[in-house]
What does this fold into?
Amino acid sequence: MLYVVMAYLWASILLYVLMGGADFGAGILEFLSTKKSKEQTRKAMYRAIGPIWEANHMWLIIAIVILFVGFPVIYSTVSIYLHIPLVIMLLGIVARGTAFSFRNYDAVQDKMQTVYSKTFMYSSIITPLFLGIIAGSAVSGRIDPLATHFADAYIFSWLGLFPVTVGIFTVTICGFLAAIFIIGETKTEAERQRFIQKAKHMSLAAIAAALLVLIAAQRDGVPLASWLFGNPISITCVVLAALSLIWMWVSLFRQSTKWLRIIAGAQISLLLVAITYEHYPVLINLKNSDGLSLLIHKGTDKTIHALAVALLAGSVFILPALFYLLYSFNKQEEA
It folds into this structure.
């Protein structure tokens, strides 16, 4: 049952990166659009993210619940030493969702629409930035449970070159996912061409950000290279991700967009496997001590069993409801 719980944890993180990433990326693309094309970009993104923006945070909630119930030591460590970036990220999620609702459903169209739009765009950048910072901090060994000073315990646990570059990489990945996702939702050829160009630009930005992450890892002593190239599984995933990147660029230049979403999703999945496989089952790397392991720092067997049963039973209700939500929006669009 423990492996069932871990599988759900990994899957929920992956789905949040893919679906939540495309959602955040919509605001990022709007921010990067020119004044002339902002309104058209906004409308296209609203059609695209409408079916998922209400539901994508479900995956984050599932991951948090799994950690809270099944791995309380890991949950408490992250909540204590990374509480500052966590609070900023959560405030960004709340501000973004609120701004999106008021901007699209407010009965009164006035100057506040500008405030809602800016809030939506800025929080769309801030939220994935700090999500990436949290992830980078968790694996970089910056968390020091023995720290005696506030700054060492709660500031420098996340404020560093490697976590920040991971945050920047996460922002570019979100913009890339959004552009790829929206290409299939465009209504005109001009709109389609515009988002193909955005996908190319965001892909280049993600590649540049990935290089920055590698440089920062080398500087901060994070063994990222060995995680990516230290075992056959990770090497295979990196090679496949690189090949899929070539396939994606060929598809973009040939204007063949049929498989783009699958290719992009495969790239992110392969990268996540490559990075996490080497230091499995350790989820959190600590400074000057052993990391926190999913196999060791878990709840009681009864708790894990009950959690696994709840996750399996919940899937019976959640997944059909999610598919019906997507189906309903598609039917509404056709009508």
User: Anything to note?
Assistant: Residues 2-220+298-334 form one domain. The longest helix spans residues 301-334.
